[in-house]
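@channel sequence for tomorrow's demo:
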Amino acid sequence: MSGLLGATPQAIVDIQRDIYLALAEHIKTIANGGGWTDFLTFLPMGIIFGAVHAMTPGHSKAVLATYLTGASAGMRRGLVVSLALSATHVTMAVVIALFSLPLVSLMLGSAGSAPLLEDVSRGLLGLIGAWMLWSVCFRPPHVHGEGEGVAVGFMAGLIPCPLTLFVMTFAISRGVPGAGIMFALVMMTGVAITLSSVALVTVFFRTRMEKLLATRHALLVKISKFVEAFTGLILVVIAMREIFIR
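structure tokens (generated this afternoon):
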């Protein structure tokens, strides 16, 4: 994984392309009546595929880091948020692909995008941001509940993974949706690894700062409220920009 983290953008694109082309060949072979053993042997490559793909722009990494910076989540809760985001992000793509005829025309404006789901996702995150702003102004300092974190992960993950959509659509078009679902589930592991890394790094640096300021409780409370308010404002701005300006 350390090698992947140091990969250049072009290397990331090349890795995705090579794995996808190999996957396409395996799916074609299965569609022609064989190759399941080779496909199952190839399946773990989906972890690398998902992890590398999640390093590319998107996947709500900024939203995840922003929320965890302003929330009082520890390492375990940060993992819960990232896992909820990963699972929803990939699952939505699988569901859309499986029910493509009624859903694609409604939700997908172009290949790899989902305007309606993007608006719903950002709108719900905007509500979370507004709640955080209200909380700073009218509530005493508090600990963010795990349920809130799961909700944030779910809302941010409503935007489907475009590459999972492509994989599922290709597998369905060849008459082997099961192969697409299996690869998507393995991809989910890779996506979760990358997003969990983002979550853990964010929580680590936030908690280090909190420890540095632990002897100055009043200052820490003020900074915590400022960061929470700033996080809420950022979430609201993202929601407004995505819905009304995009």
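heads up for whoever presents: The chain has a mean pLDDT of 77.
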